[in-house]
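Minutes, project check-in
Item: structure for the 243-residue chain
Input as provided by the requester:
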Amino acid sequence: MKKLKHIPTKPEKSISRQEIETKTEELKEKLFKIQDVFYASKKFSLLIILQGMDTAGKDGTVRHVFSCLNPQGCTVKSFKVPTEEEASHDFLWRIHKETPAKGMFQIFNRSHYEDILVPTVHELLDEKIIEKRYEKMNHFENHLKDNDTIIIKFFLHISLEEQKKRIAKRLENPNKKWKYSPEDSKDEKFWNLYQQTYEKIFNYCCTPIPWEIVPADEKWYRNYLIAKKVLETLEALNLKYPS
């Protein structure tokens, strides 16, 4: 796989924002309809994983792409620093209990991959323990797949320059200032380490589920690519309403 720094974070200049935004709305209408069939058939469950650097747009993706869904068939879970109870169990305990039931969409805003990223970058665990987690991730996702869970893993790929702009906007905008944490600015220092760790994750945790690396500097293009991928995945199932 290429280094992340060699993968574009922006769409090609020839791509029309207006056309893409129109297509995105069409995709969202189709997603709403196919979700109803998915919920009624209860043959599969869908797990959507959103990963990315701070300010990459995980919250925005949930808000702008998946707001079209029926809340009755979709839940969102955001994984923060483990609580005392969560930390007293194995690292996948808190993840497994949030996986979706048949007919349901589940969106992970951050995920089990944080349990590789943070300990690696901030040297919180022995390297041998972290190395074993790569294998455990693959076993975990294979187990979900064997039990009819469809998994789509997105990495929202932004540039360091765009991250700096978004952090500055959080400080300027009273409606977004609550999202700012001093840790956001500190993580700039760890940018390269995070990028390197993500690259390793993409290489070691791509079986059975490959990663979708989404250019995310332009929110309208990010939204389109994610909606398109989710719809294509669901259409490939050829689901029908129960007779």
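Outcome recorded: The chain has one domain: 4-235.
No further action items on this chain.
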